[in-house]
């Protein structure tokens, strides 16, 4: 059964403390309650060290909370190892180099990604149908990369690579897309293209997306909801109705 788009993230009293009991103790996530409905595109803003990445790491399972619960689609995943949720959760990081294998071709990178997310059937990716599917999906990006699928991915620009990483990460049965400053290392034009692709993929694959950014313009132009974090807590939560009525200057006033 395919679950496209029916993810719902339910977070209750989530806490993550690092270095507990030591002088350098940090309550990185400090009592967060948050419900995210399927198909929402949530943009998270907040100053450095406010706990944004920690929250994403808790959702993906790369770290386990000190207290509280996380439910995905009604399943309690609070203590589930990350590789047991990775089938549903796609992540893209700041560094365009981190999501892919440089020396391998675009096509081989897609094969690897397919293998990673499939529970069975390692023969995935060697068929002509797979190749066609990859080319078709890459064409969707509108960057002309569908004609370069035999080229090592390391020869592409950071923006091209980040766009492919995004696409790769959502091609299988993923429901949730977690983006931690995916455009921070890109020039403004490439950043715009990549964020646009993230938006397109969210709609196309009916994903539930969380984007961390320091870019207020993106927070204004994209997403269905804006959350501000500060000191491990949610300071502001602006839903779709209110976001629609916002002016860009409001955001600058609040978050700038
Ligand atoms: N593994 C860790 N060990 C110890 N402290 C950590 C760890 N990870 C994060 N922290 C601390 O937790 C706090 C929140 O960090 P986090 O990375 O979540 O912030 P952020 O909002 O993503 O910041 P930025 O905008 O700079 O990326 C910071 O004080 C950070 O130093
Ligand atoms: Mg961060």
Automatic annotation (TrEMBL):
Keyword set includes Electron transport? no
TM spans (from-to): none
Enumerate the subcellular locations listed in this protein's record, separating them with semicolons. Answer: Cell membrane
Q: Name one GO molecular function term.
A: ATP binding
ABC transporter domain: residues covered: 9-256
Q: Which UniProt keywords apply?
A: ATP-binding, Cell membrane, Membrane, Nucleotide-binding, Transport
One Pfam family from the record: ABC_tran
The annotated topology with respect to the bilayer is: Peripheral membrane protein
Q: Transferase as a keyword?
A: no
Identification of the protein by name: ATP-binding cassette domain-containing protein
């Amino acid at each position: 059964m395919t679950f496209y788009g029916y993810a719902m993230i339910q977070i209750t009293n989530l806490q993550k403390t690092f270095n507990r009991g030591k002088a350098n103790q940090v309550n990185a996530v400090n009592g967060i309650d948050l419900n995210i409905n399927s198909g929402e595109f949530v943009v998270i803003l907040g100053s450095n060290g406010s706990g944004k990445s920690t929250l994403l790491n808790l959702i993906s399972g790369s770290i386990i909370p000190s207290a509280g619960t996380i439910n995905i689609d009604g399943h309690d995943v609070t203590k589930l190892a990350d590789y047991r949720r990775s089938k549903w959760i796609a992540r893209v990081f700041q560094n365009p180099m981190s999501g892919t294998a440089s020396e391998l071709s675009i096509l081989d990178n897609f094969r690897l990604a397919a293998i990673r997310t499939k529970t069975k059937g390692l023969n995935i990716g060697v068929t002509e149908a797979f190749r066609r599917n990859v080319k078709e999906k890459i064409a969707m990006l509108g960057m002309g990369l569908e004609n370069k699928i035999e080229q090592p991915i390391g020869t592409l620009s950071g923006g091209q690579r980040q766009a492919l990483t995004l696409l790769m990460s959502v091609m299988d049965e993923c429901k949730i897309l977690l983006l931690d400053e995916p455009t921070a290392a890109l020039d403004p034009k490439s950043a715009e293209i990549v964020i646009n692709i993230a938006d397109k993929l969210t709609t196309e694959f009916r994903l539930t997306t969380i984007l961390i950014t320091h870019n207020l313009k993106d927070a204004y132009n994209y997403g269905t909801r804006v959350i501000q974090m500060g000191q491990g807590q949610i300071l502001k939560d602006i839903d779709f109705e209110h976001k629609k009525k916002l002016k860009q200057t409001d955001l600058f006033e609040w978050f700038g």
